[in-house]
Specification:
Helix content: 25-40%
Distance between the termini: 36 Å
Number of strands: 4
Shape: globular
Structural class: alpha+beta
Strand content: 15-25%
Largest sheet: 4 strands, antiparallel
Order of helices and strands: HHEHEHEHE
Number of helices: 5
Strand order of the largest sheet: 1-2-4-3
Length: 169
Amino acid sequence: MNVLEAINSRRSIRKFTGEPLDEQDLKTILRAGFQAPSAHGLEPREFVVVRDAKIIEKIVQFHGHAKMLPQAGCGIVVCGDKTKQDVFGFLISDCSASVQNMLLAAHGLGLGAVWCGIYPREHLIKGMADVLNLPEHIIPVGMVVVGVKDEKKSAINRYNEGKIHYDRW
């Protein structure tokens, strides 16, 4: 699949078969996350791969939009290291770029994935930090839930000429 086809056809998938994720596919998705651009090349991103059923159940208890996680192959919690990037907006942007790369990689592999937001919701940040035993300088930004998809969605054209401005508003 070429990159424009992937961008235009990727959809959030929330239904999974429950099959384990192939280790090579997982590595490919993680590599894609690391390939995302990073402000000033500081690369503050850290990934926590979550597959343990007990940890997954704890996440589902506090994250209302992660109910599909138990049926997926895993969750990848994308975190930012405040000691590597002290400009918080850049840290969030870097981690978000990693999430997008992982979503596209999963789609390119024929898998399903969905972005479950964490930052800036305080209860989600605290819940994830507690469950994953994150150090204080590590901020969970988002989670990519990925697995073998059990639904198919058609592409959506979101292009909107009315939201494009040239040279000034």
